[in-house]
User: Fold these one by one.
Assistant:
Number 1:
Amino acid sequence: MGWMHTARFLTTAAQLHHLPPMDTPEIAFVGRSNAGKSTCINTLTQKKQLAFASKKPGRTHHINLFALGKQGITDTVLADLPGYGYAAVAKMDKLRWQQVMANYLVSRENLKGIVMMCDPRHGLTELDDILLEVIRPRVEEGLKFLIILTKADKLTRAEQAKALSIARLRAGGGEVKLFSALKKQGVDEVAQLLWDWTHSAEGAAPAPLSDQPHEEEPEALDE
Ligand code: GDP
């Protein structure tokens, strides 16, 4: 969707209180390291390197914000939260950034929705469950929630159907979608849903049709 292709880097912050307070609707992307979060953001926005900026040394524990909106006017913010559960991260560091994330997810006032990436071959992990518990009260109060099952190209149709039904049981009031950056599966659906989340109060304007051709080569997906 053309709207998502307007994404541009806004800012990065190590702590919640360093993030600029904003009144623009914000959508947070969370997920275990290696779940495919950066690839998903890069595919949705058609910016090859956008979310990989979050993986630069010194930024992996940061919250990175990207702005969306035509004519340079920001109408939505994407927040790329640090990947979690990576074994090489020291225990204290892990605790520290889990705290940063939990703080962000419960107290960021302009937060409109959360997108959780999950590699369906591994299912929801213990840390995913902890996050689900943290956000559940906000989802019950109306916060939007989507589980993206990444790397769907690695599953057979039967496995996809099974992964969908398992994740739906866990998603509470949220939605679940299959996604493949490699096959471009689910890209338009996810973009449309995020548009609806952030624009529905404005009279549910129809989403602009894709107005940018796929100019970039698909990323090398090597896993
Ligand atoms: P992150 O740590 O969650 O940001 O994960 P990455 O986006 O870096 O992806 C982790 C690995 O999964 C990389 O090797 C990607 O190439 C691979 N990957 C991501 N999305 C897909 C996909 O849709 N299909 C396939 N086959 N591999 C993928």
Number 2:
Amino acid sequence: MTTSRLWHGFTDMSTVRHRAPFTITRGQGAYLFDAEGRRYLDASAGLWFCNVGHGRAEIAEAAQRQMSRMAAYSTFGDYTNEPAEQLAARLAELSPTDGASVFFTSGGSDSIDSAIKLVRRFWLALGLPDRRVILSRENAYHGGHIGSTGIGGIALDREGFGELITDTARVAWDSAEDLEKTITSLGAERVAAFVMEPVIAAGGCLFPPQGYLQAVAEICRRHGIVLIADEVVTGFGRSGDWFASRRFGVVPDIIVCAKGLTSGYMPLGALIVGDRIAQPFYDGTAGPFFHGYTYSGHAGAAAVALATMDIIEREALAQNALSLETRLPDLMSPLTDHPMVQEVRTGQGLMAAVELNPQALRVTPGLPMAVVASMREAGVLTRSLVGGQIQFSPPLIIGNSQATEFVDAVLTGLNTIPPQ
Ligand code: PLP
């Protein structure tokens, strides 16, 4: 075996470097295939991104068509390209925010850091330089850059890097009252923005309490605080609509997206910026926002996003997620009686997680990893989340049988773990 030179993200390399690598060679629909041709259900859509499923030739053809003409050129100054223009118009149209403008990046972390810089620059331009604090929620994951790590709500992610970003504060993930209290104690005049995932994804698949999204939107509006919805996971059909914000009647000032925007066929992120924030930059009163990326408005990536959105629309994938949302509690019910299962979390769209029983986790701390490994043996790929929950967020093209395949694999996993 040749030594792999690939350093894996989110991975303790000391645990994998002596193992034979697990190579995925092909994907088709909701399934992936390894080098030996074994088939696996993709129960996590990669890292929550592959909404339209794998192996879509029409997306590859759209990339080929665009990239053989012109893969990319900068979009600084007055330079532009057709796919970036079309995509910006389409995202602005879908956004619940009136008169939105779209700023492109290369992924979710880029987009969150861009949003932090944009809102601070916005308040500075309005003559309010002290309005700098970025509020976020405990348990939230917003990315791996210095800024997005710094506002993240998973303590372990922030450890060991020194001070990442100043002027931040976190609020309880499930309490609009705590947001209000924190704003009052800091002083609203110091708070620039509140960043929130409509459903906390990597932090444990945590669905907001009923009315939470509307309540925090109202609090932000009342205090003039910029509301940033991190829809990197919940966007593009995952939550049963193009955006969770749209579904729940919330109008954020900025929607951050990535992942499902291209279903992972190309790295791409975007900020959909409402008129309130964009206007001072467009009318010249704020001066320029000197920020951007080499690949902002990448033509090939934009063509891929347009082809992906065509599929989501044509195949009514958001509606499929919505319809599965109502069926998931039943489909996953065989898990609820298992003694090692605390809760099967379902709620919005095609996002779910199996929370293991704290007693079982105490007795067997490696239980989630062992279940995930056993599921792979049984032909289902997924991962465990921060609190040990087993993630279920497959491509949006699935039906009942794939949900059952997942449930059976979790049961097999739980039943093959030797009691300690
Ligand atoms: N925001 C959320 C909610 C995410 O789940 C992620 C990634 O998992 C990010 C931001 C960061 O996105 P990326 O990994 O594309 O930089």
